[in-house]
Amino acid sequence: MFKISIQPEEIEKMPLGSFPGKIQVIDKVGFEFLKAVAYLRTQKIIGFDTETRPVFAPGQHHNHVALLQLSGPRKAYLFRVGRLGMPKLLCNVMANPHILKVGAAVHDDVRGLQYYQKFKEQGYVDLQKIAYEWGIRDKSVKKLAANILGVKISKSQQLSNWEAEELSPAQQMYAATDAWVCREMYLTLLQQEKHPLTPEQLNPPQPQQPAQPKAEGKKAAKEAAAPAEEKEVLTPSQKRRRRRKKAKAAAAAAAAADSAAKVQAAAPAEAPAAAEDKPTPKHRRRHRKPKQAQEAPQDNG
Known about the structure:
With about 300 residues, the chain is an alpha/beta fold.
């Protein structure tokens, strides 16, 4: 029986696994290409994988498949499809239902190859879709290889340039191993008794978070939403426009603050002058008293 899932620290203790046979790079249709196709047509089960040049900067166009890897037990062929495309003879191998092509996430790989030439998706085995039948929940090739074969697969070349003029020996070994190890895992699984995962094992319950007060719950919801905003990818021109808008807003705010400060500084100087010119109620009463004293004698006469 295999483990449901294997941990990274367990993988690090395992021996390194690598392809033990001959690696052949094919970059044009010729004699070596025909020899490769002839060999692959004799195989009932071959390992299958593809490689694509990675994209690092936002806004760059998506690259197409650069390399197709097909491996038997002792020979691995690396077809540089970015240069030679998908010739008919190679498409016939990929569409042959009697040659099993074993890989991981094979539908995505096939779809990438069909950019060059359409062919039927027949005779494929996806390890990610069948591993659960043997009680394995892991999906990545690295974890599957560690769980099934007990070896560590190096991924150091995964993000290298697969459209380089020449593939380095490290790239060739990485590419050949990724295809070969899928074949070896499938053959090993076929020799073992199946112990399918239960629905609960396939989808284990997630640990529940402790209940929070209402106010804290709103705050947590805002914090949870924040990373989605932070992950927004902007092009260089969008970043420049955003910086200009921020600079204009800051300048406008500074000008408004400066204007308000000038108004506040001028207001106290005008207030005392207005207060001195305006007579108080007490002064008004003093002015009215003499007038009443002059009117009184006229009433007696």
